Description:
The protein has two helices and three strands, in the order H-E-E-H-E. By secondary structure, the protein is an alpha+beta fold. Strands 2-1-3 form a three-stranded antiparallel β-sheet, with no helix packed on it. A hairpin with a 6-residue loop joins strand 1 and strand 2. The protein starts with a helix and ends in a 12-residue tail after the last strand.
Amino acid sequence: MSRRAKELIGTVVPDRWMAELFYRGEDKPRLVLLEELEDLDELVERGPDWNTIDRIVITLNRPSVEPVKESQ
Length: 72
């Protein structure tokens, strides 16, 4: 669902993907939330220099759900 669609329906819907960009020379990764994976290339191209990327970890951003506890 695009950001515009989210705005139109007025519902809080979490972005689908989370990307951690690890750059050489930086202590912490840069965390990015994305709705579509195709948006990641634009973020990488904007910099810093893509030659300094060590790795990118992409994770499906699922809502955490507590397991249902059975009564005993």
